[in-house]
Amino acid sequence: MARLQFPRVRLTGRQSELRDELLELMLAEGFAHFTMDDLTVRLGCSKRTLYALAQSKEQLATSIVRLFFKGATEYVEKQLQRARAPERRVVAYLTAVSEALRPASREFLTDMADFPPTHEVYLANTAWASMRIRELIQEGTAKGSFRDDTNAAFVSEIVSATMKRIGSGSMQEATGLTDSEAYAQLAQLVVAAVKR
């Protein structure tokens, strides 16, 4: 997943708190409709304080999306370390992705998809997740837990395409499943397809 790219200056304690508050606010309500003035009112800070984090609302939104995915990646990898059996590792990975994305409102996901710089961050993270699924399937095949004829690249591409549909909201529209439920179904589908 994409790395956090805030300016190289060290954040003060207040700036770190503000960044965390921004993350919480944007996850709950999205970011496209906010102006810098709106954000200063909502967060009780000055524009100068916000501009110390980023030079524009667009840069601020992009850095917050990166921050979100950095935290999500760390959470997912930590959960994955707890699983040992190949089948459980695939399920643990997709379940952890679902849990990590749970705080993201539909407004946040829509804004992220509609704004090219944040959409690029999302696509980079989806590509990372696809690569991790490929690695997990290759590990399971090497250990004899998954079928020898499993094409890990193909399965990871299917996972990536499905993740994009879940993230866009189109999966929920088509199936009525929440994002979390869709990830649970995806995990079951992948494991059923590759198991011996």
UniProtKB/TrEMBL annotation:
The lineage of its organism: Bacteria, Bacillati, Actinomycetota, Actinomycetes, Propionibacteriales. GO terms for molecular function: DNA-binding transcription factor activity; transcription cis-regulatory region binding. This is Regulatory TetR family protein. Keywords: DNA-binding, Transcription, Transcription regulation. InterPro entries: Homeodomain-like_sf, HTH-type_TetR-like_transc_reg, HTH_TetR, Tet_transcr_reg_TetR-rel_C_sf. Residues 23-61 form the HTH tetR-type domain. It holds the Pfam family TetR_N. The keyword DNA-binding applies.
